[in-house]
Amino acid sequence: MTTYLITGANRGIGLEFARQLSRRGTDAVILGTARDPAGAGELARLVHQVIPLDVSDEDSIAGLSAAVGDRPIDVLINNAGVGSEQRSIEGLTLAELNRVFTINAFAPMLVVKSLLPNLRAGNRKSVFSITSQLGSIANNKGGSSYPYRASKTALNQLSASLANELRAEGFCCVVTHPGWVRTDMGGQNATLGVDESVRSMLAIIDRLRAEDSGTFFNYDGTTLPW
Ligand SMILES: NC(=O)c1ccc[n+]([C@@H]2O[C@H](COP(=O)([O-])OP(=O)(O)OC[C@H]3O[C@@H](n4cnc5c(N)ncnc54)[C@H](OP(=O)(O)O)[C@@H]3O)[C@@H](O)[C@H]2O)c1
Which domains does the chain have, with CATH numbers? Predict the structure, then answer.
């Protein structure tokens, strides 16, 4: 039996993780978070527990820790994220940089911090953070989307530090690009269905080993340049 905790699980990629994991029956215990649990009807039918969580609010992260209690967590899926419409240097504001960095980069680390005792007690010790290929500096040929790109680059760096710090304890901390996926964020022109993206990422999660810690995966299991 494996216990998964998925942030931002009420729609998009997070909800599809809950759908596919729920098909594993008693092999998977799923905890899903949502900013508005009352509006997360499908999620509630799929998971063991829906936990309220706004990742941009430290009190809410403390509430997550209280709700989980001393239950071991095997796999944390840091999925919650936001896009940004600020695409040019002229349009850039500090408020938007702060908002997007807080949710996409800083919050995943604070969630890990709050759940460290639970992850340490788990059998898998896996932290699977959803990044974007737009966070790759090596692949940045297009510019634009300043807050979003840079927040995912920061998430990659923070995850690399996490992997290094927790390696000796047997943790496996990776970042993964889900592909360009048809969700509210990805839009209808995206190339990948949410079912295929999540099926592929679950295949990565299922075969994660400690030696993989610190890897930047593409959804298909290949690696991406930093
Ligand atoms: N779709 C793509 O093509 C694509 C490509 C690369 C990377 N990604 C990444 O994949 C992840 C999931 O994206 P998606 O496509 O599924 O996006 P989505 O459909 O827009 O869903 C985003 C999820 O994040 C949650 N969220 C946003 N702000 C939050 C906050 N402050 N606290 C807690 N939860 C919050 C949302 O909750 P609410 O419903 O309450 O807003 C929602 O559950 C993100 O990290 C995204 O950056 C997506």
Answer: 2-218 (3.40.50.720)
